Amino acid sequence: MERKYAIIVRVTLVVLYLVFLAGSVVRMSGSGMGCPDWPKCFGHYVPPTDISQLPENYKEIYSEKRAKKIERFSSMLDAVGLKGEAEKLRNDKSLLEEQDFNAQKTWTEYVNRLLGALSGLFVLVGLILSLWFYRTNPKWFYISLFNLVVIVITAWFGAIVVATNLMPWVLTVHMLLGLVLVLSQVNLIVCVVRPKFKNKVGRGFRFLMFLSVLLMLVQILLGTQVRQNIDVIADEVGQLYRHDWINHTNIYFYIHRSFSIALVLVMLWTMYLNLKYRYNMSLLNLTFLILCIEVILGMVLNYLGMPAFAQPMHLMVGTILIGLQYYIYQRTVTK
Fold first, then answer.
1. Do 122 and 248 lie in a common domain?
2. Which of 177, 197, 217 is the last residue of a domain?
3. Number of domains, the chain
4. Is 44 helix (H, G, I), strand (E, B) or coil?
5. Do 109 and 41 form a contact (C-beta atoms < 8 A)?
6. Where are the alpha helices (DSSP H) in 30-102?
7. Cα Rg for the chain, rounded, in angstroms?
8. What is the pTM of this model?
């Protein structure tokens, strides 16, 4: 039974990464509003394939529904003291503008939602199975319960993303919640799969691994700021001038670009200590390779005019990288 549970927690992580990939493709392709409602899509569990399947006034219908959702969300923000953000939502009439129906974008968003639902199902199954081991390994249950709570909140924020017409800061919170879920699932894997196996390392090595995770988290946060800025630029400049977007970016882009140097240096120093003290952490080589791929993708975005294919790859590789860094950190213990 324990072996089956270990398989479930691993598969769950793979599905979570697929959700990240699908979400980045949705954002890159501008399909986030392919379904103007949530959890259904145009009022159906299986979305339409042609505009003839929709009422003529479908834009007005979903605009009115969005207005009500925005008011509810704004009231919630008022209640927690974020009155400024609430007023911005209420006063931004552009949030009520509906996109023209596009079957490709609708189904891209729909696949993203299906993967999200599948990930929720796997997390739920993992929680149920963890009850089997509650007496011997209660930590498995509590991590699984935490994951279920986070994925429910993430799904709710997905609804808010739609309700606010892809408001940038809401998208960022939605993505960061997904990242928390991925790291928590990595932690669960460490607890379930060979829990007693730990590499004994020096304090300096373990500190550098912690620092690399922290730096990568900051790098991802900076990346979300860059992405928010790019969204604004894309609206102002237009999709046809994608090659010129970089020239209009703000200071966050240059910090994000330069910050990668610190990350590479820390990883190089970690690899040096691994060789010097023979810790035999072979997974570090793969981690550094993925870091190099991430840096190359960043250079492609910077110097080749923000090609669309590189955007989801950049986010996906970064998410895999921080997952590996965190896994290595959790698999080590100081001597």
1. no
2. 197
3. 2
4. strand
5. yes
6. 58-79, 83-91
7. 22
8. 0.87
